[in-house]
Amino acid sequence: MNDHSLTGELLLLKTRRPDTRNELRREALRLFAERGYAAVSMRDIAEAVGVRQGAIYNHFAGKQDLLAALMIEHMETLILALDEALSGESGPIARLQAFVRFHVGYHIDKPDDVFIAYMELRNLEPEGRERVHALRNRYEAVLRDVLAEGLRNGAFRGPDAAVQARALIAMMTGVTVWYREGGRLGRRDVIESYVQITLQSVGIDYPIGGED
Predict the structure, then answer these.
(1) Which fold has domain 64-206?
(2) Where's the DNA-binding part (predicted)?
(3) Fewest C-beta in 10 Å: which of 67, 132, 138, 211?
(4) Is the separation of the CB atoms in 146 and 198 below 8 Å?
């Protein structure tokens, strides 16, 4: 067997590995975050994974399908993780704190996913964009409902739950722009700073009830 045949067989075996789809997702995410969606080709992704370009089409219909999968799976994962983070929390104040801690922590830990989800939305075709918007609305609705409950029972102050929810999500998501590991404030300090800012924005003194 010559070297060319051996290389071909190795590539075929790699293509058939069950984790090839995940490798394609991971490398596409990295490349899109580094270069931007428009500057990355399917060949670039295939070379990064170590498979033939045609092998990608065993898992994704094309680059647009791959981008949509990254963004949709990001939002689905985000929603499931949020549900888990809020489970067991009751009352609008506790649920608001839990939401902030989850959102800021998740976005600190997954900056590439967040960057793609926001910056590359413009590159999605209408069908994919609508699915992402629907998932975003589901996520935002959780915070909106928490704020609405707090406004109804007098725990929070503010003009409108929908406006507050959008403003708070924009503020919290902005952590990905400036946070860097090893900076003046650690991860926990940054998260608690966002908790304080959020609670004060709805009229809650912080720390609550003399908490440290």
Answers:
(1) Tetracycline Repressor; domain 2 (1.10.357)
(2) 41-60
(3) 211
(4) no
